[in-house]
Amino acid sequence: MATAARTSRRPTPAAQQENLFVWEGKDKAGKLVRGELRAQTENVVQATLRRQGILVTRVKKRSFGRGSKVKDKDIAIFTRQLATMMRAGVPLLQSFDIAIKGTSNAALGRLLNDIRSEIETGTSLANSLRKHPLYFDALYCNLVAAGEQSGALENLLDRIAIYQEKMLAIKSKIKSALFYPISVLVVATAVTAVMMIFVIPEFKKVFTSFGADLPAPTLFVMALSDFFVAHGFIIFGALIAIVVGIAFVYKRSAAMQASVDRMSLQIPVIGDILRKATIARWTRTLSTMFAAGVPLVEALESVAGAAGNHVYRVATKGIQNEVATGTSLTVAMQGAQVFPAMVVQMVSIGEESGQLDGMCSKVADFFEREVDDMVAGLSQLLEPIIIVFLGTIIGGMVVAMYLPIFKLGQVV
What we know:
By secondary structure, the protein is mostly helical. It has 16 helices and three strands. The protein has a three-stranded antiparallel β-sheet with strand order 2-1-3, covered by helices on one side. A hairpin with a 5-residue loop joins strand 1 and strand 2. The radius of gyration is 31 Å and the shape is flat. It starts with a helix and ends with a helix.
């Protein structure tokens, strides 16, 4: 009995994890062939190929290096690939095999290999994904679970892919709007530092030999240069330390994140873009969840997590609580006071007509176009402002240093 009990606890071959092996060999005609095969051990690979009449010359377990990080874009591309392959009738495990072979990101390959191994042992796709919350959030897993339960997984994966592509597009547009001014400020700071520390001291040596009174702007710039030469490394070191410290605290402090989210919505122009992008994300998420058949209260839980802004996350939690007690979504959104009247009216029409997902999708499309237009307008607005800024700072220093030379020319 004891022996039987011990035997029953041994893992069956089906429960053991399979690995991906790369092999080379010769077929019956002596032609060199190679390929990949999933098996538990190298011996299984050799036995399988031997039965196929292949003389194996090399078998090696495929290892995934450290590689780069798995980014949101990688997950979106994988989702689109998986949806396309499953819609074409490719089995789930085979779809994973194709995705693993096709990726050049070793980290993504390891992730997909782990998920595939879980599925192969009988775990559902949704539960396999839930074991990797860093890459697959609750929204993603809930939609996959709904697709598995309804038998329409390929349709839900297609919806997830569309949703992720829309979200990535919005993020990319906001980043592009902020990248230009930030990059110009960084370059301007670097140029100013070089002039203050290296160029202006050389001018100072020349002007000292003149033995004449220097104009006030020149004296001011030279004094500023002396300060930078004496304390420049301390200043830049302190600035770097402050930036790193703020970033460190921001990642670990929910209170600071909430404060930054609130303040970001108050910034002129930028705040408007962020607000509209958040509303677009909010309505797109609600549309995707509701279209998948997820109940409204549960859908609002995922919407809160995907809001991307503390103000809207708190407001969505309040809306969820009110809807759970029987309040209509429209009334709850009016009470939250963070949505424009147009959004509330569209949601009201969607509730009354039974087309809430369609109306939310239309609202998302509208605000995504608004974000596009505002980003384009912001770029045009910033260009003259940045040109004036650079002209004032860099041009001012150049003019200040050439004033004594102009005066010397007038005397001569």
